[in-house]
Amino acid sequence: MDGRTGKTLPVFGMFDNGGDLVETSFLMEGLLVARQYFHGSTSAEQDFYRRITHLWETVEWTGTRSDPKSDFLYWHWSPEWAQHIHPSPRRLQ
Predict the structure, then answer these.
(1) Which residues lie below 8 Å from residue 6, measured CB to CB, with a gap of 6+?
(2) Would the pTM of this model clear 0.70, i.e. be above it?
(3) Residue 80: is it exposed, middle or buried by C-beta count within 10 angstroms (0-12/13-18/19+)?
(4) Four-point Cα dihedral 70, 72, 78, 79, nearest 10
């Protein structure tokens, strides 16, 4: 993502303009760890905790499936190209 404009950068080709399951998962994992660490009584920590909770609860994970009943998670999703890039399906456990 271009930090100045917020637009995606197609680093891996023209179909690479959307979300990535692995990077989103790593980001959320780090934010959840920070949320637990900064879960104090100050107003700044409480605000930080609420903001991370909101992000966690509103991540759009459904784009990682080609259909809601699918047993597979796909690595990449694009608002323009859907799941055009499929390295290999990841079976849900």
Answers:
(1) none
(2) no
(3) exposed
(4) 20
